[in-house]
Each structure stands twice: as C-alpha cells, then as structure tokens.
Amino acid sequence: SADDFFNHERLEILGDSYLKFITTADYFFRNPNMKEGAMSLMRAINVSNSHLSRTSKLKGLTLYQFNTPFKLKQWLPPGFTCIRNNANLVANNMLTDGSKQRDSESFKQVMSVKNISDTVEGLVGVYSLASGPVDAARLLPWIGLDIDPNVLIEKDKSVNFEIPTTDEDIQLSSCILRNTDYQFNNFYWLRIAFTHSSVASENYQRLEYLGDATLEYLLIEFVYCRKPYFGPGKISHFKSVMTRNQTFSLIAIAFQFYTHIRCHSKLKLDIMDSIQNFKEILLDNHQDDHQPDIGHFANLAYQLYTSNRYQKLPKVCADVFEAFIAAIYLDCGKKLRTVWKVVYKMVQRIL
C-alpha cells in the first residue's frame, strides 16, 4: 500500500511457512503425548494475525512500517529541520483549528491487523533467508512467540530403539533406499510413518502433522530462491498445487507407498481398488510399449490429475507421504538439507 517498487509480499509467504514449520516442530518435541488436533489449535493461536500484530506493537515494530505513499510535502531533506519557534508561530497565526487537526492526522498511518502481522512474517522470512532456519529461530522469542530457539538445532542421527526388526521393516527400508537413496537408521520412525490409526494407537498422525509443515516450508523456500521472478500470486498458486493432498497422494502412489501401509483390511481393500482404477486410467493414456518408471509415472499421473479425468485419490496416501518426510527429518537428526534431497528426488518431475 506504500506504492513503492518493492514490498514484503513474497517474504510474507516464506515467513508464514517458516513460522508454521517451527511452531509445529516446537509443539511436536515439547509435547510428545499431545494429539495432532490440540497441537494444531495451539499453533493457530500462536501464529494468528491478532497475536503477531499485538506482539509487533509491543516491540514498536509498527513505527518502522511504511504503509502509506510517500508525499513530498511531508518530507525534509537530511540535515534540514523546521525551526520550532517559526513553526509554532505559523501554526498558531495562520492555521484554523480544522487545518491543525488535518495537518496532525496527515502524519499518522492507518494499519490493519493483517498488515501488521504480514510485516512480522516478512521480517521472519528475511531472517530465515539471511541466517538460515536454525539461527532465525532466535528472533522469535524476542518478537514475543513462545518458541524454543534451539528447537531446530541439528543432532546426530537418531539411534535405533530396542524394537524387534521384522521382514516387513527390512523390505520397506530396502524399497525406500532403492527409490530415494536414503537409508533409515531407525526402523521405529519408518514403521510408525506407515501405520494407520485403525490398527494401532501409535500411528502416523503426529508425524503427518510435522511432515506437512516441513514439506510446505521446504517447497516454498525452493520456489522463493529458484524463481525470483515469481510474484506473490504465482508463489501462492504453487503452494496450493504442490501442498494439496491430491498431489502428495500422487507421489505416494508413484513410489508405491500404498503397498506398505499397515491399516485395517477393509480400508486396505478400498485403497487398493481406488488406486487400481486410477492406474488403469493412467496406463490407458501411456502410449509406450514399456511400463513407465517411477519418475515417468509421477509425470503422467500429474498430467492426468490436472485434466480432472479420474476419481479422488485416497487421502491416506497423502498422510503417509507427509509422515514419511517427518520420519526422515527425525531419523537424520533434523538436517533439512538431507530431507530436501529426498523430497526433491520425489517431486522434481512435477515441480
């Protein structure tokens, strides 16, 4: 609204995704027994527009916002000032009471709650770019957010819990290694990531909550840095397409995650039937004689998906993909570069 050549809109999208990621990680590690719904509610309150606006005003950040167009009549060159006595004389003798009031109001800015919160998110986005996601966390307690500044510090690889390893675990780990080049150190996280709530109380729901925020932040950071000519509208469109459940389901299907999901038999049959129908439609659109590889499959699937010629895909597949990304994040010791290597390998055909 300042009508300048640049603004914070691109940074605001990046800062918003970073805040979502770090608050999610903070609640995940701080409350190991808290359910996904409760964590989502706490996150929504902590990063809400009203809360960010309130903390910004308490820190005086609104004094530095440029929210109105520059007016030459309100500007003094550096080193110049209006002599106080002369200014008072002119104001008292030449101006009416109404003019005095209008003149005073011309130096005020009217800012909405969302405008102030967007500025805070833009500031957070700047810090995440300049200092990295780990060091940028130190800014948040100063702003007034109840977040552990050390929550994203990288650690050694996750140690193996004392759990019996099954043939199913080994088979799944081999499949992951073959398709993503990532070797799990801790089968516990991998097993949980593929376990549905219909068969066990310890399931992928918390991991899904963490993986969703991790994926969104990594994808938004990628498009922000790699596509500097993308305006805020294009970045928002990219976000809506790449982070929707249907897109994540496509990726999970392309990498055959659905064959390893541990869930109730009835749900398993429904998933397999839905995916089989989708694959038949997909292969009907595949003109080559040979079967498509995983990357080609994902590309074909996305083309078919955008044409809206098939039924809705199972959300379970998207949930498992998000939980799988969170499992890698925990297994590798919170190393976002390692996570991004896996994510990029899986989504590069449809980026």
TrEMBL record:
GO terms for molecular function: deoxyribonuclease I activity; ribonuclease III activity; RNA binding. It holds the Pfam family Ribonuclease_3. One of its GO terms (biological process) is pre-miRNA processing. Keywords: Hydrolase. GO terms for cellular component: cytoplasm; nucleus. CDD domains: RIBOc. The keyword ATP-binding does not apply. Residues 1-132, 173-333 form the RNase III domain. This is Dicer-like protein D.
